[in-house]
């Protein structure tokens, strides 16, 4: 089969990590008889430089016409880059919000895995993480405070800013379904996180999630308040299987979860919607300070490409092959600088990509 | 001097921890020549049982007429208690929101301290916490999503819930001032946390905080996005001095911060406003499962009483004496069960209170 992949390399280390992921896709394609047809698109700072805005309608349209999107990272150094002199809706990150909404990608999945081989990098003590942990944060991605009405007005000489947090039943139901579907393929536990003791939107969230859970009698559903969840991620991350939550809480908790693993350079993410078209990107940022130095860890992007194979193209075996190759390369002792440890072999971005390809 | 202290023991372990804090206040009063006149008030579940609502207007009025409020904890077991069958605005926690707003307590201060003697309980690895850390989260407490308009409506048969996040300049300015004032007495660093890449309220927040910072040229101000802050608290808590943030972010981050210390039973909190009247309570909850068993750690409440001496009554020496007694008791090897460690002496709630009194 031939798959059309929109490639958004983006800014900073984006181009070099995406290059390695393409290499891996081509290798797996060659082995299993698929071809990937890449269309390179601009988004973020590079698009601002080229077109004056972070994501043009034409680029969005081109993304819509592809089978999936592979993204590196967008954005620069806030303190240094001219991009951040622009109004907020013209900055690099606005491109990300526009493409999520434009492609209807309402379900963001971020695995938080403590890789056996990298447990030394975990900030938590060993008695907490012994045996490892492996959970996902399922974050609603196109609703809530991110896409509600907002305005800043002056009243009697006083500036006043308002953002709106809205969810309707349908928005909650569709993301809850994703949460339970994921749980069914995992350890059958959903922890739904909200602030139901304060927010109306959270109370509706809790009610609808409970309704949806009736269709998944095998899955154990628990509710947790967001402040408690922020504590539990540090106290006992092993308790989680699927954390299901709304957009802003998911932003905070998924970042906390990725730091808890200690190896954010390893963590992939997928943004999914109603069709097979998904967007796949590493959980980490564009790291402008190390861009172009062959230092970046391409593994998160490579594992995101594996998620693309699995979720957009239903290529399970192929996805497994990529994931196995990543595990093997770690087992064989190769490390980029961000995950380097005593007695291991340090390699650059390109060599890491090559080593993974060799193992497919 | 004579000070009028409204005492809200509350639910669960509330009564027994507040009793120890009163014991300590009386001891320090005796030593330094002050008297504390207590007025016992009901709030939370016990008020629901007595009056059908978590905080009556009469009780609020009585709190207003006192010089400060000492609070234990409110709330019960969500799964088991009848209190949670009530509509949200009638549940125990609603009393807390009503008293915060009613007394105009817009500044919540929660210290996150890694006590030398308790570093074993910290979930983070030693190389991260070596040398300890000591910062405060300064959380805005009467604005934002907590007190914005909310509604749940049905539109074409679809339920839709909305909460509103509003801040005006004045609300931001007054809490920012508290943040900088605290920093001036500490290490002169304020980290203001927001989500300015998405929210209008955060952009106004950032602007106003920056303006306020001009009056504190000695204080170093940095801005941090909330998702990044959730990571940094785990990666490197030592970097912080004062974290300044809005209500919901503060709820999440202060709880994360307290868990990062590993000894939530030790953490106090103060809610302050425009007058000297403040509300002081432990950071932890009502722990209904261990209530009445002489197991609860009273130290967080005792340290909250010390904050009361300092912030409401300007009794610096007296506050120092309480804090020193707590340090001494830890040094002498006494521990309640939640912070118990090998080779230490385990004591109950009452004995811990006595031991601290002896050291004043
Ligand atoms: C860049 C920013 C707008 C974005 C978000 O908040 O969603 C990022 O933090 C993320 O989590 O992908
Ligand atoms: C009980 C709840 C409403 C409260 C809050 O969210 O403010 C609590 O979590 C706190 O932090 O004091």
Automatic annotation (TrEMBL), chains A, B:
Pathway linked to the protein: Amino-acid biosynthesis; L-leucine biosynthesis; L-leucine from 3-methyl-2-oxobutanoate: step 3/4
Keyword Amino-acid biosynthesis among record annotations: yes
Domain of life: Bacteria
Residue span(s) of domain Isopropylmalate dehydrogenase-like: 4-356
Protein name: 3-isopropylmalate dehydrogenase
GO annotation, cellular component aspect: cytosol
Role according to the record: Catalyzes the oxidation of 3-carboxy-2-hydroxy-4-methylpentanoate (3-isopropylmalate) to 3-carboxy-4-methyl-2-oxopentanoate. The product decarboxylates to 4-methyl-2 oxopentanoate.
Binding site for NAD(+): 285-297
MF (Gene Ontology): 3-isopropylmalate dehydrogenase activity; magnesium ion binding; NAD binding
Subunit structure: Homodimer.
Subcellular location: Cytoplasm
Keyword Disulfide bond: no
Homology family: Belongs to the isocitrate and isopropylmalate dehydrogenases family. LeuB type 1 subfamily.
Keywords linked to the UniProt accession: Amino-acid biosynthesis, Branched-chain amino acid biosynthesis, Cytoplasm, Leucine biosynthesis, Magnesium, Manganese, Metal-binding, NAD, Oxidoreductase
PANTHER family for this protein: 3-ISOPROPYLMALATE DEHYDROGENASE
Protein source organism: Butyribacter intestini
Binding site for substrate: 100, 110, 139, 227
